[in-house]
Design goal:
The structure is a homodimer of 351-residue chains.
Chain A: H1 2-11, H2 15-33, H3 44-57, E1 71-74, H4 88-100, H5 113-118, H6 121-139, E2 143-144, H7 145-158, H8 174-185, E3 189-197, H9 198-202, H10 205-209, E4 216-227, E5 233-243, H11 249-258, E6 264-267, H12 273-280, E7 287-294, E8 301-302, H13 313-321, E9 324-327, H14 328-331, H15 339-348
Parallel strand pairs in A: 1-3, 1-6, 3-4, 6-7, 7-9
Antiparallel strand pairs in A: 2-5, 4-5, 7-8
Chain lengths: 351, 351
């Protein structure tokens, strides 16, 4: 390699082109020798991913897909990070209501706030889902979009998971973070398509996954443009749901935000079923993956009867159609990143 | 340059790094010598753009902005392409209703279709805006998203502008196409943020501007996920407005789709006013630009009293705050691309 580069330099004329190609070629060789997904155990699942990527990136091959069309979509809760014992965004909302309580003396007498803040579980349960939604909405409205984003990043600096005793944004799945990076290195554009709140995720997704805000699709509340008292414009978050990016809402969200059908989709629950169907119904090579939570020692084990992340109909279709199902216990060497991996990821995170 | 590269090659060790840097450096030199915006006349407007880009890209400078935050947003109608004598999307819709009429015998007796199809201008005028909206909706609903996209690309292959006698997607502004490419070459990510229909624009924006579907923000109708008769999922377009990306809706759309505040925004009418305000209200270096239509020889001249593309309040604020106002007649060497430029653009268009 060195010799040919040196002689190209002496020839002069084609230096730019030849040298750039030589450098690119060296990178390809280096890449092929280093396992891009070291946290995955060898097996049919890992092979199915690597083979799919090889097929769609093989220039001149029957299944080649131009980089612009290499759209990959990932559910977030239970697919890229942990979702137990409760969706992390719900835990955030409850912590926020506690933190906001001193500014809301009226909550001392108003349900469901009174029941929740005083620890009256019976009264809170009596409020049912409606009460919970009201608590979550209180944490997500009545403030500007900038204030909300700060409340999320503040929460991540001090809140810790009850079982793993780590900040929530450290409970991302290391094998999936590697998969995202591997896809991007292979010319894919990676997107989150999640039932979670889009503004909640954007506050930390870039650092955790290398996915920039504009590639995060999620549920949203109504936002209103206003001129503040100082004449400066703000966007106020209202207590009104605008779009639920879950179930059949996922292909709708993909159409609305991305405007192109993905060629790869990964989920973990029936909320991802239609997104997987929509992805697989396109022309050409396609990949559908499901993370099956089978590891109650390192994480959690749940599927068909679970309240959170129920995996039932999508699993049946995966079996019938031969989609790739990741067995967390068997296919993943590690689940969560070690401390030094977190640092490396944050440094590498690129839009 | 060649000598130092050759000696670096002989030293061997740092070849990759040094050579890549040398090549990159040559590119920078070449870039600086070639005018990236040859269709702009020299003057304060062109200078304001070039100086802004230089400031935010100068590593170590006070106004440096990391590439991930170099978000640039552009209105479409009247900013990137012509919007006279009527919004092109409205002309598309009317052509579509004519083309769809044989499949809709019931339209012969039903207003506003009867009036429009029979050329009964008086009866159509009596229907007012409601009638026009009904015609536009008919062309935008009752079909799948894929079928709609095909109807747009089909239309572009045969429909021609009544004055310029060219396909509508050739009536993009060559100086703005150059600006978009210049910004991307300077590390910006370019977005459309338009009151136009998002699915209408996505059908041709990538080829015309080099802006991929996922970077097009626009108005939208409700779309529904369904399983077709063959069990294949489709997205059906319903006759119901979902989101109007105009006026105060533009900062809302930017928040929803992009999730980051732009540092550069370009518009041409009061529909872009809040987007410009929102962009300028952020921290650090900012750029707001307005295309003023002053050229009724090469294009059209209109501003304050215009029904389409009214420019009044945003113009006043531009004058008061020193935003950049492009005088089309004075600042642009050409308006529309020549045939050979179109070919070049299509070839270069990259996501």
């Amino acid at each position: 390699m060195l010799v040919s580069v040196a002689s190209a330099v002496r020839r002069g004329l084609w230096i730019g082109l030849v040298v750039v190609e030589a450098v690119a070629f060296s990178c390809v060789i280096a890449f092929a020798q280093i396992d891009p997904m070291p946290s995955w155990n060898d097996g049919v699942v890992k092979t199915s991913i690597v083979e799919f990527v090889a097929r769609v990136t093989a220039q001149g091959g029957a299944d080649f897909v131009p980089p612009a069309e290499r759209i990959a979509v990932f559910d977030n809760d239970g697919t890229l990070w942990c979702e137990q014992p409760e969706y992390f965004q719900a835990l955030f909302a409850l912590d926020r209501v506690r933190a906001m309580a001193p500014q809301h003396p009226e909550w001392r007498e108003k349900e469901p706030f009174r029941a929740f803040l005083s620890g009256d579980k019976q009264a809170l349960a009596a409020q049912g889902e409606k009460g919970l939604i009201e608590l979550v909405e209180a944490a997500h409205s009545g403030m500007t979009t900038d204030e909300f984003a700060r409340s999320v990043t503040d929460w991540l600096t001090h809140a810790k998971h009850p079982r793993f005793n780590r900040p929530y944004n450290e409970l991302v799945y290391q094998p999936m973070v590697e998969l995202l990076a591997y896809l991007r290195a292979s010319g894919f554009k990676t997107f989150i398509v999640s039932g979670g709140g889009v503004e909640f995720m954007r506050a930390w997704a870039e650092k955790a996954y290398g996915i920039p805000p504009e590639q995060v699709v999620g549920s949203s509340g109504v936002v209103k443009f206003e001129l503040g008292a100082d004449g400066k414009p703000v966007l106020m978050k209202l207590a009104k749901v605008e779009f639920v990016d879950d179930g059949p809402g996922k292909p709708v969200g993909i159409n609305r935000f991305i405007g192109r059908r993905p060629i790869l989709a990964f989920g973990n629950s029936d909320g991802d079923w239609q997104m997987l169907q929509w992805t697989m119904a396109g022309q050409g090579a396609r990949f559908a993956g499901i993370v099956h939570h089978t590891d109650d020692v390192r994480e959690y084990a749940y599927d068909r009867p679970s309240k959170i992340g129920q995996l039932d109909k999508a699993w049946d279709e995966a079996k019938a159609k031969g989609w790739t199902v990741v067995d967390m216990k068997q296919d993943w060497k590690v689940v969560f990143p070690a401390q030094d991996q977190l640092t490396g990821q944050a440094r590498e995170a690129k839009p």
